[in-house]
Amino acid sequence: MSNRVDFGHLKAYHMAWKNKMRNFLNGTEKVERDELVSHQNSRLGIWYYNEGKDEFGHLEPMKTFEIKQIKLHKLAKDIYELKEIGEIALAEDIYLDLEATSQSIVALLKEAENILNQGIAAEEERMENSNLVVPWDKTKKLVSETDATGTITYVNETLTLVSGYTEAELINKSHNILRHPDMPKVIFKILWQSIKDLKPVPIIVKNRAKSGRFYWLLSNYTLTLGENSDIKVITGVQTGVSKNVVENHIEPLYAKLLNIEKATDMDASERYLRGFLTERNRSYEEYIDNLLMTGRDTVKSDKKGFWSSLFGKS
Predict the structure, then answer these.
(1) Residue 297 and residue 294: Cα distance in Å, rounded?
(2) Which of 11, 58, 209, 313 has its CA 20 to 30 A from that of 222?
(3) pLDDT tens profile 164-185
(4) What is the DSSP letter of 5?
């Protein structure tokens, strides 16, 4: 369902009011004086002062709109009084100013619409693009560096080209800015636990570009440590992943994990993943390595050290 703001009915009310003003001046329609001369008693004024000002009055176009409304009805008052005393020619001169003010009001409503719908339009475009893949040269590597909290401190040019974000839009932002909503949280729990243990594991991730398009990557990480073995820099190097691995193995697994997280919680998702890996006698890292090397999902025959390293190498 669209959340777009549409002031079309307000414009229609205003045009109907202006037509009524024109008809009054022509002598073809009788109107109530207050509806013409009071900026608060017209249909548009009633909406603005009972509802519109609270919701939209902070917008610059709507601040100007209120000023133009006051001017419009002062002009209408002058026209009304001149018409009553038979000064039709002078009233017609003033009507030209009223017409120009009316056009300004319509333009201001349109400007306010555009401001309010700008973010919605961008999100709608992202949604339209959500099923489209980002085309990129998979022989190149996407490189990023973050601090220990995941805040981006460096990105290479390839990453900016593929993601669609500028360097300025990424630096000092959380790496989550690139995360696709289809990614289950449990995969990042595995990653961050491995980083905490100073033995980061590779993960396959689905990222979302600024446009809303997606791209799959194999992410490998290295750590730069300080004197006290505290993490100073996390360097991520991302490369492409084969379509077979993604579509036949990773997407179905991640979709299942994500559905479990939405229906219950991440703990339930982690329990499912543990069972999934137990069936294959592999850690997550071993599962990914095997997929990348063979393109197949198989059971590991050697069980040595499995339970002690369910989420890491034996």
Answers:
(1) 8
(2) 209
(3) 999 999 999 999 999 999 999 9
(4) -
